[in-house]
Design brief:
The chain has helices at 26-32, 35-38, 42-58, 64-83, 95-107, 120-156, 176-201, 220-226, 236-241, 244-270, 298-321, 336-359, 364-372, 378-389, 393-410, 419-423, 439-445, 454-468, and strands spanning 161-166, 169-175, 203-204, 231-232, 278-279, 361-362. It is mainly α and 470 residues long. It has 3 domains: 25-116, Fumarase C, Chain B, domain 1 (Orthogonal Bundle); 127-369, Fumarase C, Chain A, domain 2 (Up-down Bundle), CATH 1.20.200; 378-437, Fumarase/aspartase (C-terminal domain) (Ribonucleotide Reductase Protein R1, domain 1, Orthogonal Bundle). The strands form 3 sheets. A two-stranded antiparallel sheet has the order 1-2. A two-stranded parallel sheet has the order 3-4. A two-stranded antiparallel sheet has the order 5-6. The chain binds arginine (ARG). Arginine binds at residues 34, 38, 94, 120-121, 124, 328, 330, 332-333.
Length: 470
């Protein structure tokens, strides 16, 4: 890039160039301009300006004719932007000045009255809050769609037994439906975090002006209400400098992405030949350019990777805001790129997870076989010793461990040991012990609240279906 300084007076900003004699250097313009990024807030910017102009007219700060002209002009600008024909100018720095400059071309002199009792500092904070409010609402819907796909699968597979793992070692048999519903729970907490963030961010900075408020008799309740904010913010310095609202949304996004990555990882594992628990259709698989036999779960791998980007966005914005003195500093312009990026990443990840959750088809035989392996019913044997023989659990654990050792020595499941072999370890054991020794019996027995028994899982499916309006 060449760094040419323009000395033409016309090259100074018509918005703030009154005391300037020459225009910015090309690099100055490049580092200063944010329009490539903040043009995504055009809808919010225009909504904010319409509300502000309406209030200026209603309070008599500007004439009602000027207010009406501004409103009509802004509607036309909005149409032009929606139609895609708008020409954005870097020389005009940001979305705010691009919109206002176009308004001036359309309506002339009254356009200059729009910025009365306002600054870009309260304007950008307003736009950004409105944008994030919409983003929270979209993410909530996307999370609900993801939950719905999981609940539908859980309903289908409430009775399907599979191995539950701890340390990724076979632990106890569980219902596949139960496993899937665990991600519905996590997604509900994610929704709660976005809801909380949305509730806290829904306050209006508009009217706080540059940092100190304004001498004009504005009506901030009126603009706050017309933009759907719960109330105006009550400290002008805070209103223009706070960005913790974006940090909260990014934190929620980071946690949500981490939650998604855990299921994504399981999809990757389940679709391997080693596990063989599930497969994805062609719509959610990719091939290898060298190995003709390959089916790769790329989308799941990419969701697994998304926390890298989203946590990066959170860390990036935390670092930008850290140590900034009050009130507005231009550093704060660097808030939007990471935030938009994180929201885009999360929305794509959620769409992919909802798609894969619906698409997964499961292999009942592989799940059932694996559920019965590796002495996954050993706890059921110990529990039987407690229940039927009155053993203390610690003793029962020890006895069951010895019986597992005997079965292991012969490389057979517990249920294939003879009664005599069991009685050699504990003489009081009788024939009825065999009724608890299977993966399915184990799963069916866990009827405690929150447990994996299919009766409990179906109750939870019904609760979620009701909650999600399915
Ligand atoms: N583009 C700016 C931003 O995103 C708008 C606010 C500019 N304010 C200023 N005093 N230069 O932060």
């Amino acid at each position: 890039m060449t760094d040419e300084t323009s000395t033409k007076p016309s090259a100074t900003s018509s918005m703030w160039g009154g005391r300037f004699q020459s225009g910015p250097s090309a690099v100055m313009e490049a580092i200063n301009a944010s329009v490539d990024i903040d043009q995504r807030m055009a809808e919010q910017d225009i909504a904010g300006s319409i509300a502000h102009a309406e209030m200026l007219g209603a309070t008599g700060i500007i004439s009602s004719e000027d207010a009406a002209a501004i409103q009509r002009g802004l509607e036309q600008v909005r149409e032009e932007i929606r139609a895609g024909g708008f020409s954005w100018s870097k020389a005009l720095e940001d979305v705010h000045m691009n919109v206002e400059a176009r308004l001036k071309e359309i309506i002339g002199e009254p356009a200059g009255r729009l910025h009365t009792a306002r600054s870009r500092n309260d304007q950008v904070a307003t736009d950004f809050r409105l944008w994030l409010r919409d983003a929270c609402d979209r993410i909530d819907m996307a999370l609900a769609a993801y939950q719905s796909a999981l609940v539908a699968q859980a309903e289908r597979h409430a009775d399907q037994v599979m191995p539950g793992f701890t340390h990724l070692q076979t632990a106890q048999p569980v219902s596949l439906g139960h496993h899937l519903l665990s991600y519905v729970e996590a997604a509900e907490r994610d929704r709660g975090r976005f809801r909380d963030a949305r509730a806290r961010l829904n306050e209006a900075p508009l009217g706080c002006a540059a940092l100190a408020g304004t001498a004009f008799p504005i009506d901030r309740e009126r603009t706050a209400k017309s933009l759907g904010f719960d109330r105006p913010m009550t400290n002008s310095l805070d209103a223009v400098s706070a960005r913790d609202f974006a940090l909260e949304v990014l934190s929620a996004a980071a946690i949500c992405a981490v939650n998604l990555s855990r299921f994504a990882e399981e999809i990757v594992l389940w679709c391997t030949r080693r596990f063989g628990f599930a497969s994805l259709s062609d719509a959610w698989s990719t091939g290898s350019s060298i190995m003709p036999q390959k089916r790769n779960p790329d989308a799941a791998e990419l969701v697994r990777a998304k926390p890298g980007r989203i946590i990066g966005s959170l860390t990036g914005l935390l670092t930008v805001v850290k140590g900034l003195p009050l009130a507005y500093s231009k550093d704060l312009q660097e808030d939007k790129a990471p935030t938009f990026q994180a929201v885009d990443d999360l929305e794509l990840a959620l769409a992919a997870m909802a798609g894969m959750a619906a698409d997964l088809s499961f292999n009942p035989d592989a799940l059932e076989l694996a559920a019965g392996e590796a002495y996954s019913d050993a706890t059921d044997l110990a529990d039987w010793l407690v229940r039927e023989l009155g053993k203390p659990f610690r003793d029962a654990h020890h006895i069951a461990g010895s019986i597992v050792k005997a079965a292991e020595a012969r490389d057979i499941p517990l249920a294939e040991l003879s009664l005599a072999e069991m009685q050699a370890v504990e003489k009081e054991i009788d024939e009825s012990v065999f009724s608890v020794l299977s993966a399915r019996a184990s799963m069916n027995s866990r009827i405690s609240l929150g447990g994996t028994a299919p009766v409990r899982v179906r109750e939870q499916v019904a609760r979620w279906s009701n909650h999600l309006g399915l």
